[in-house]
Backbone:
C-alpha cells in the first residue's frame, strides 16, 4: 500500500501499480465489458494524473481513485451510444453435464443469477452494492467514493438487500 | 432459502467476486505503458480534463453540499421586494461552484415552478390533470439559458409561479431536463410497479398513488396531489407564511414555535425565518431549521439522552449544529459533519437504517428514511411527497394544532403557516390523499 502522509507526493505510475486492479475491477463491475473497463481505467488515471493537486486527503487515495472511477463509469453508461450497445453478460452454457459437477453448476447458476439481479438494480443501489460487496469497501469509504452520506449508504444497502431478496427468493 | 437469509452477505460477495469474466482481468505492463502514454498525449487537454473532473466531482457531491455552495452564490444577489424563489434545481448535485448561477438558470423552470408552487402559493398554475411543468401557458423566467444565467441578475417576484418553456433551458450533460421529469406511467409495469418513463430508478412502491404508512403518515407519490395539498394548506393559512432560508442570510427573523401541537408529545419547532411578509422567499434556501436559544439549551441537556428524531426540537438542534459545522467548512462537508450516529429509537423500535448523532450532527437528513420510519408518529399528520428513493423533490408537511410547516428538502426551505384549526386541515389532507 502506498504510505500516505500529509506530505505524500503521489506518483501516478505507482498509484497505477498499487491500485490499478481495484480501479480496473471496479470499472468492470459497472460496465461489464473488459475492453471498456480498460478504457475507463485509462480515463480514470488520466483524470487522476491531472487533478492530483485537488486531492484533499479527506479520504484515502484509493477511495479517491475509486470515486473517479465510479464517476467515469457513470458518465460512460449515460452516454446514449453506450445505452444501446452495452454488451450483455454472456452466459456460457455447458452442453455436457456430469452428475459430479451438479453442485458446482448449481452454485454457478446461483451466482450468475445473483450477479444479474445486482446488475438489474437501479443505479444508486447497484453502485452501493458493488462498492460494499464487490470492492469490499467500508461504508465510510463508499460514502466518500460516491459522495453520499453514510446514512444514505446504509439505507440504500438495506433496500438493495430487500430488492435482491425479493428478486432471488423464488429462484434460489 | 435459509442459506440466503443467513448468508446473504457471503453469497453476494462470492457471487460478485466469483465472476469468471474477471479471470485474467488484471493490470499488466502493457496496460500501464499504454495508460502512461495516454496521459502524456492528453497533456494538451489538461484544462478540459480538470474541468471535467470538477464537474463530475461536484455532481457526485451530496445534495447539501451543493445547496450550500449555491446558497453562498445566491446570497450575493440582491433580494428585491418582489422575489420569487430562485431556481434551486434538484437535490441531485449537478451543480459546481463555478457554474452555480448557470445551473440555477438551467433548471429555473422546474425549480421555480416547484419552489414557488410550494412557497409562494398563490393560485392555480396547474389547473388540470393535463398540465405539466412544461405547459405552454407557462411564461419564461429570467433564467432562460445557462449563458444568460451566468450574467443575469436574479429577478424576483412574488405571488406568481416561475416558469419555463420547453426550449428555455439548457442542462449539463448529466442533468435531468424538464422533459425527463414526466411523472409515472399511466399504467403499472408488468411487475405491478409504477415507473417514471425516463428512468427506472424511481419505482413507486405501490400501485396506489398514495400509501398510508401509519395512521397519520402518508407517502404521496403523485405530483397531482401536491397542488390540492398546497391549496388546502393555503386555504387554512392565516396571514402570510414565513419562509426560512439560508443560514448565511443577513436578515433573519426568529419565529417562536407554538407549544401546543395538535398531538401530544410533539415539541415546538423553532424556525428561523427569512424575509417575511410578502409570501415570497428571497435569497437562497439553506438548511431548514436553525436552533434558537430554547432548542440550543435543550440540546445541551440532550447530549447524554437518546436522540429522538421525532422530536422537532432535537432535530432542530442537531440540524443547527450541522449548519455550524458546514459554515466552518465553507459549505463543504467535514468528516464530522458527515458522520451519523447510533441507531435511533422511534416508537419503541430501533431504526437501523436511520442513524443520527446529536453530538456529531448529521450532514443531511434523508427524508426518505425519516418518512419510512414513523417520522410522523408524534405529529398530527405528515404527508410526504416522495418522488423517488432519494431526497429529491421531497416535501414534508407537518400539521400542528395552530400551524402547518412545510419542509421542502429539495430547496432547503421551510415555510410556516399559521392556521386556526389544525385538526380540520389534517382531516382535509387525509381526504385528499385517500382519494
Residues:
Amino acid at each position: 500500500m502506498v504510505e500516505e502522509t500529509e506530505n505524500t507526493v503521489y506518483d501516478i505510475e505507482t498509484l497505477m501499480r498499487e491500485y490499478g486492479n481495484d480501479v480496473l475491477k471496479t470499472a468492470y463491475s459497472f460496465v461489464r465489458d473488459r475492453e471498456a473497463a480498460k478504457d475507463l481505467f485509462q480515463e480514470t488515471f488520466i483524470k487522476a494524473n491531472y487533478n492530483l493537486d485537488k486531492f484533499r486527503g479527506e479520504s484515502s487515495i484509493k477511495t479517491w481513485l475509486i470515486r473517479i472511477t465510479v464517476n467515469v463509469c457513470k458518465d460512460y453508461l449515460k452516454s446514449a451510444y453506450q445505452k444501446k450497445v452495452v454488451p450483455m453478460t454472456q452466459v456460457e452454457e455447458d452442453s455436457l453435464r456430469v452428475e459430479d459437477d451438479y453442485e458446482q453448476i448449481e452454485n454457478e447458476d446461483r451466482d450468475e443469477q445473483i450477479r444479474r439481479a445486482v446488475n438489474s438494480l437501479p443505479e444508486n443501489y447497484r453502485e452501493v452494492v458493488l462498492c460494499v460487496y464487490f470492492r469490499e469497501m467500508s461504508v465510510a469509504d463508499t460514502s466518500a467514493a460516491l459522495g453520499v452520506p453514510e446514512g444514505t449508504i446504509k439505507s440504500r444497502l438495506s433496500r438493495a438487500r430487500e430488492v435482491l431478496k425479493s428478486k432471488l427468493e423464488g429462484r434460489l | 432459502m435459509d442459506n440466503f437469509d443467513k448468508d446473504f452477505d457471503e453469497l453476494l460477495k462470492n457471487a460478485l467476486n466469483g465472476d469468471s469474466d474477471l479471470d485474467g482481468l488484471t493490470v499488466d505492463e502493457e496496460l500501464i505503458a499504454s495508460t502512461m502514454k495516454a496521459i502524456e498525449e492528453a497533456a494538451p487537454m489538461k484544462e478540459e480534463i480538470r474541468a471535467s473532473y470538477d464537474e463530475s466531482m461536484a455532481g457526485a457531491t451530496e445534495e447539501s453540499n451543493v445547496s450550500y455552495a449555491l446558497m453562498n452564490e445566491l446570497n450575493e444577489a440582491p433580494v428585491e421586494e418582489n422575489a420569487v424563489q430562485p431556481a434551486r434545481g434538484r437535490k441531485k448535485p449537478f451543480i459546481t461552484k463555478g457554474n452555480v448561477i448557470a445551473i440555477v438558470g438551467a433548471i429555473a423552470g422546474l425549480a421555480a415552478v416547484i419552489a414557488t408552487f410550494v412557497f409562494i402559493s398563490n393560485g392555480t398554475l396547474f389547473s388540470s390533470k393535463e398540465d405539466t411543468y412544461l405547459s405552454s401557458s407557462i411564461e419564461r423566467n429570467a433564467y432562460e439559458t445557462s449563458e444568460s444565467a451566468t450574467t443575469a441578475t436574479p429577478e424576483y417576484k412574488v405571488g406568481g409561479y416561475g416558469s419555463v418553456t420547453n426550449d428555455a433551458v439548457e442542462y449539463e450533460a448529466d442533468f435531468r431536463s424538464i422533459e425527463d421529469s414526466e411523472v409515472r406511467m399511466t399504467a403499472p409495469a408488468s411487475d405491478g410497479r409504477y415507473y417514471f418513463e425516463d428512468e427506472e430508478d424511481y419505482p413507486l412502491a405501490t400501485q396506489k398513488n398514495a400509501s398510508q404508512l401509519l395512521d397519520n403518515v402518508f407517502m404521496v407519490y403523485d405530483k397531482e396531489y401536491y397542488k390540492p395539498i398546497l391549496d388546502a394548506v393555503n386555504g387554512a393559512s392565516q396571514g402570510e407564511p414565513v419562509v426560512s432560508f439560508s443560514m448565511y442570510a443577513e436578515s433573519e427573523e426568529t419565529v417562536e414555535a407554538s407549544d401546543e401541537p395538535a398531538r401530544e408529545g410533539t415539541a415546538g419547532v423553532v424556525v428561523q425565518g427569512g424575509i417575511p411578509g410578502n409570501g415570497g422567499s428571497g435569497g437562497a434556501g439553506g438548511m431548514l431549521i436553525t436552533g434558537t436559544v430554547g432548542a440550543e439549551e435543550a440540546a445541551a441537556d440532550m447530549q447524554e439522552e437518546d436522540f429522538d428524531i421525532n422530536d422537532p426540537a432535537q432535530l432542530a438542534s442537531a440540524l443547527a449544529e450541522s449548519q455550524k459545522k458546514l459554515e466552518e467548512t465553507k459549505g463543504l462537508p467535514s468528516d464530522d459533519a458527515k458522520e451519523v450516529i447510533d441507531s435511533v429509537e422511534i416508537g419503541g423500535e430501533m431504526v437501523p437504517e436511520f442513524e443520527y448523532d446529536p453530538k456529531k450532527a448529521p450532514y443531511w437528513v434523508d427524508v426518505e428514511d425519516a418518512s419510512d420510519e414513523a417520522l410522523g408518529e408524534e405529529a398530527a399528520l405528515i404527508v410526504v411527497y416522495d418522488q423517488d428513493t432519494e431526497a429529491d423533490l421531497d416535501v414534508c408537511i407537518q400539521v400542528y394544532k395552530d400551524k402547518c410547516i412545510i419542509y421542502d428538502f429539495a430547496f432547503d426551505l421551510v415555510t410556516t403557516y399559521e392556521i386556526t384549526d389544525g385538526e380540520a386541515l389534517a382531516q382535509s389532507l387525509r381526504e385528499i390523499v385517500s382519494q
Summary: Residues 84-97 of chain A have pLDDT under 50 and may be disordered. The radius of gyration of chain A is 18 Å. DSSP finds eight helices and no strands in chain A.
